[in-house]
Amino acid sequence: VFSFFFFGAVFCLGLSFTYHTLSCHSPDMSKLFHKLDYVGISLLIVGSFIPWIYYGFYCRRGPKITYISLICLLGVASVCVSMMDTFSEPAFRPIRAGVFVTMGLSAVIPALHFILTDGLDSMLKENEFICLLTMAGLYIGGAAIYAARVPERFFPGKC
């Protein structure tokens, strides 16, 4: 199950590395790998949630399959949107950040389910809710930095 996380992380970093390395090759290569960079972000988010859902609902097959299917479906939708030409336009920067934040916030649904069925105390002690919140905070923080154009905003033309 952790392979999903490692797969997502490796592909996210690999596609990001490839984009930042090849973006100066040509405009067409830059556009392609810019889109693939977003695909990598989607894969990382999906891969991050699968282990948490799998172990959080380990003894409950129905919810486990439902929530893993939900995050995978959102991931596929995000990948499809990421590959659209208009989505990579600069005007859509805040929308791109919003798509990834929304995808990440979809974890609220299984988290609420777990709290309603097992209680908040169980969620905090058994289901590593603090780790989920930390992950969500880091992803939302990254999306905010991206949407705010940091560091480009402070050093125009140098980043």
TrEMBL record:
UniProt keyword terms in alphabetical order: Membrane, Metal-binding, Transmembrane, Transmembrane helix, Zinc
Keyword DNA repair: no
Principal localisation: membrane
Membrane spanning stretches: 39-58, 65-84, 96-117, 129-148
PANTHER family from the UniProt entry: ADIPOR/PROGESTIN RECEPTOR-RELATED (PTHR20855), PROGESTIN AND ADIPOQ RECEPTOR-LIKE PROTEIN 1 (PTHR20855:SF127)
Family per record: Belongs to the ADIPOR family.
Protein name (database record): Adiponectin receptor
Species of provenance: Pristionchus entomophagus
Lineage: Eukaryota, Metazoa, Ecdysozoa, Nematoda, Chromadorea
